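Trying the structure run again after the queue cleared.
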Amino acid sequence: LPEEYIIKIEKLILPDTFFTPDYLEKLPLSEIAWQTLEQIIYYYPRLTLVEYGDYEGYGSRITQAKRAGLLPASILTKVCCHGSKTQIEKVHNIWSDLWLHNLMYEEKISIELADIINFPTEYIYKLYLMSGHDIDINKLKMLRLPFTYRTNLNNIHYRAIDTLIFFGKRHFFKGYAHFTEALKILLSKDLLTSIKQIILLGPKFDCM
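Done. Tokens:
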């Protein structure tokens, strides 16, 4: 694409590069994603991978287009399963409203029809299986931890822990309530004497 059509700082190509706002307002997000990609592949013929998240099923129409032969076989689709409405339903321990079911179905399609299915945790993978997702084991790819560590810990001496870190949104379904409750228990038992700092990495929510 010409450089003026790309947002330079983020290097993003947005749907309104190709379509008018009035047209986009009539389409579901999954259809916008597909129609935008349909335009992009003409500008980037060497494109080999399309990656998307599972949340809200943005990639459902893209995977259906691939299955129907509207995308070349040389382009692979990859979904990263960070947590869909199925996972949110589990966290809240309450069934989703009926109007969300179609969206959850799109999420399911975007996962099952992808060429590569990435999971960051065993928990999400097993939750999706228990929820009825048909996940082809040959497409499955578990993401490794972002660090390496030794499994043989014999003869290794560590100093006392002086820092606790919470990484993620400060929201109950991200475990923040459990983190703060654990701190209360440790304080009540006088087990935080060596702790010098507690670091919170992530946005704050008013409900917490």
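Strands lie at 49-53, 76-80, 116-119, 140-142, 163-167, 197-201. Worth checking whether this holds up in the mutant runs.
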